[in-house]
Design goal:
Two copies of one chain form a homodimer. By secondary structure, chain A is mainly alpha-helical. In chain A, about 40% of the residues are buried. Chain A contains four helices and no strands. The longest helix of chain A is centred in the last third of the chain and has 23 residues. The first copy, chain A, has one domain: Monooxygenase. Chain A is globular and about 40 Å long. Chain A is about 85% helix and about 0% strand. At the A-B interface, helix 1, helix 2 and helix 3 of A face helix 1, helix 2 and helix 3 of B.
Chain lengths: ~80, ~80
């Protein structure tokens, strides 16, 4: 049961970037988005991914790979359409 | 060294919400922010916090408590100034 709560938490925090990425791609409206948030966040997620590979933890690798792609997409749009 | 990478990753992903929260509080501009991202993300962080308490993991509790306050602030501004 405790592990299930952690599992749902991981799914939610990973998937939450899907509506943001879709919203950003569709509207190209990035005015309310902080550039620094996505610079720092994408770097942090990249390090989580490296950490996941180093300790060979597949849930960590998969979750952070998905989040990295979504966060990097938002970051690129922010830099392109600011 | 491996643990250090995980530690830096955790610090970056937690602190990344500081510039976003400050930006949102200062400008009240939430047009580019996805409501659903923050609904899902804040719920996920709350579950991470519950999970941290259940397994008594203080780094998890502290990191997610900070992120929860920041994400909930952004969510409240998004709902108020959409």
């Amino acid at each position: 049961m405790i592990e299930f709560i952690g599992f749902v938490a991981a799914i939610l925090t990973t998937l939450s970037f899907v509506p943001q990425a879709l919203h950003t791609i569709k509207t190209k409206d990035t005015s309310g988005i902080s550039l620094w948030m996505y610079v720092i966040f994408t770097s942090g997620i990249f390090l989580w991914l490296v950490y996941g590979f180093l300790i060979t933890n597949w849930p960590l690798i998969i979750a952070n790979l998905v989040t990295f792609v979504l966060a990097a997409t938002i970051l690129i749009f922010k830099m392109k359409y600011k």
